[in-house]
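Much of our argument rests on the idea that a fold can be written as discrete symbols. In the encoding step, the backbone of a single protein was reduced to a row of integers, each denoting a local shape. This step matters because it turns folding into a mapping between discrete strings. For completeness, the protein is quoted in full, as a sequence line and a line of structure tokens:
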Amino acid sequence: MSTGWQTTPPLDNAQAGGWALLHCAQGFLADGNGVLFPREWLKRQDLPLQGEQGLGYFNDEAVWLLQLQQPVELPGCHWQGLRQFMLQADQATFRMLAFAEQVATWAVQHRFCGRCGAPTRQVPGERCMRCPDCGLDSYARISPSMIVLVSRGDEILLARSPRFVPGVYSTLAGFVEPGESAEECVVREVREEVGIEVRNLQYLGSQGWPFPHSLMLGFHAEYAGGEIVPQADEIEDAQWFHIEQLPPLPMSRSIARYLIDLYVARRLGQPEPQLAH
């Protein structure tokens, strides 16, 4: 018997039983027992169901995603966003919800063909929406992006966006452009966001980031020159911080926090942290 979360190709919706997650724009439905509900019980409720996706297995039990057009109220239940679960849920549950969130985003955004506008149909056994009129296939995709910690000896460069929680500083990040390598993206984004140059890039790991469908490629880079000039409308503030005088940082499960903690640990000769997957 396996434990935790196991992603699989789409389960057959005709299969009976199993558990289900209930999702809408407000997040996932939860009660005192968690986020998994008996699937057949949910389907007997009067729900504005938009679609159903077979996700995988949680502790060897089959799990589906029921997507709603709008939220509903069920006794003893409440809606909660994915970022709250990232702070509160165990790692296996968060991995399941992160995958479900990305599948939900894909399913909602590809209900109609992007080429001719016709309603699409899901291909059995595949994470693919197919247009019956023109044949266009739309698979679940991810958006590659880089995230980088820039260092200068005992100092690290951290910045904050106007969208961040007040007071929190983080590493720099940005999406990879067409035709661009991840390393080229690091150099370009750092130059655009804070006006400095970097060198000696080192790839450190990756993390799926379901906000809404990114793959974060994590790097460390050394400062090579220039003065900090924050990018207007993107960077509210950027500063060099000494590793022993850091500001409030991102949540512990994020790859941003891993990059910071890893550099600090290496600099101080402490045990290295592990990146959450």
Remarks:
- The chain is about 20% helix and 35% strand.
- The chain has a mean pLDDT of 95.
- The domain at 143-268 is CATH 3.90.79.10 (Nucleoside Triphosphate Pyrophosphohydrolase).
- The longest strand covers residues 197-209.
